[in-house]
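Sequence in, structure out.
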Amino acid sequence: MAHKKAGGSTQNGRDSVAKRRGVKRFGGQKVNAGEVLIRQKGYWYRPGLNTHLGKDWTIHASVNGVVRFSERRFAKFNGNRERCTVIHVEPVAA
């Protein structure tokens, strides 16, 4: 009679594909209209001037310009004020 347990499948070998989220363009960088500035899950960064929000919370540039970051306080639904990072695009002087 064998005293060896059945060699079942291993517990390793599974991993999810990376989502490539994060800041794609940093402060002071030049961008073109339509470029992705930030890919995020949720509302960590807020869209500011000359930017728009995609349906998956991706923030895009609306105009050609230079990226700028700032901090602002936003009121939440329960009345608390939350400090958030806002991303803007300053238009390039033509």
